[in-house]
């Protein structure tokens, strides 16, 4: 590790199911050879673990990251008119190492190209990954899966998200049942109105015959 950069990442262990979770970074942005309090930067991330924002020690936003569905990365300053350089940060999409020159990401076993929406080499474990394509990224499900080792994708939906999705499904079913009930009531009203009109028509017909 470079003496000019130190990453604070206590949760990155082989035992943890979340292996890519950088928390903070010390970066010698002043170039004076030592770390100062103002050179501590922290990450905010989304459900995929992708870095969204980089903030300084005062919790002020310094730069933000935007992504396409498959991870093409756009880096923006907090102040677009600022003359300050971007803060060098190795992590971005799914908290993997980003090579800005090519836009590609290092996923340990192989490199991933978000512009192509696939890995640039075959899966080392072949079809044992469970995917019939040896190049496809996360089985074409980049919103809910990632592939930290470049070998086999895994779900990013935790228990809370699963509960939320189940709640949404229940709400959808409730709305569906309410709609069906409304349609049933409407049809019943239409049926009653039809027989009412039919009854009135028959009465008028009988009245004319009596005359």
Characterise the protein shown here.
By secondary structure, the protein is of the alpha+beta class. The chain is built from 1 helix and 12 strands, in the order E-E-E-E-E-E-E-E-E-E-E-E-H. It folds into 2 domains: 153 residues, no CATH class; 49 residues. The strands form 3 sheets. A 6-stranded antiparallel sheet has the order 1-2-3-4-5-6, with no helix packed on it. The chain has a 4-stranded antiparallel sheet with strand order 7-8-9-10, with no helix packed on it. Strands 11-12 form a two-stranded antiparallel ribbon. Strand 5 and strand 6 form a beta hairpin. The longest helix is centred in the C-terminal third of the chain and has 52 residues. The termini are far apart.
What is the gist of this entry?
The chain has 211 residues and is of the alpha+beta class.
Structural class: alpha+beta
Biggest sheet statistics: 6 strands, antiparallel
Which band does the percent of strand residues land in?
15-25%
Question: What is the tally of helical segments?
Answer: 1
Total number of strands: 12
Q: What would you report as the Rg, rounded to the nearest angstrom?
A: 30 Å
- The gross shape turns out to be elongated
Notable traits:
211 residues, alpha+beta, 2 domains, four-stranded antiparallel beta sheet, 25% helix, disordered N terminus
Topology:
Elements: E1 5-8, E2 24-27, E3 40-45, E4 51-55, E5 61-67, E6 73-77, E7 97-99, E8 104-106, E9 111-113, E10 118-119, E11 145-146, E12 154-155, H1 159-210
Antiparallel strand pairs: 1-2, 2-3, 3-4, 4-5, 5-6, 7-8, 8-9, 9-10, 11-12
């Amino acid at each position: 590790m470079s003496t000019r950069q130190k990453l604070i990442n206590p949760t990155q262990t082989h035992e943890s199911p979340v292996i890519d979770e950088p928390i903070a970074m010390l970066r010698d942005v002043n170039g004076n050879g030592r770390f100062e309090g103002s050179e501590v930067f922290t990450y905010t991330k989304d459900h995929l673990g992708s870095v969204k924002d980089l903030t300084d020690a005062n919790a002020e936003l310094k730069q933000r990251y935007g992504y396409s569905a498959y991870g093409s990365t756009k880096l923006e300053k907090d102040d677009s008119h600022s003359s300050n350089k971007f803060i060098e940060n190795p992590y971005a999409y799914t908290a993997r190492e980003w090579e800005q020159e090519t836009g590609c990401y290092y996923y340990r076993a192989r490199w991933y190209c978000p512009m192509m929406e696939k890995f640039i080499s075959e899966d080392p474990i072949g079809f044992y990954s469970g995917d019939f394509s040896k190049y496809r990224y996360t089985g074409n499900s980049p919103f809910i899966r990632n592939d930290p080792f470049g070998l086999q994708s895994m779900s990013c939906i935790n228990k809370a998200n699963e509960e939320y999705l189940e709640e949404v499904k229940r709400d959808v079913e409730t709305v569906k049942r309410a709609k069906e009930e409304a349609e049933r009531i409407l049809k019943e009203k239409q049926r009653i109105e039809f027989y009412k009109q039919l009854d009135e028509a028959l009465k008028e017909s009988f009245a004319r015959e009596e005359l």
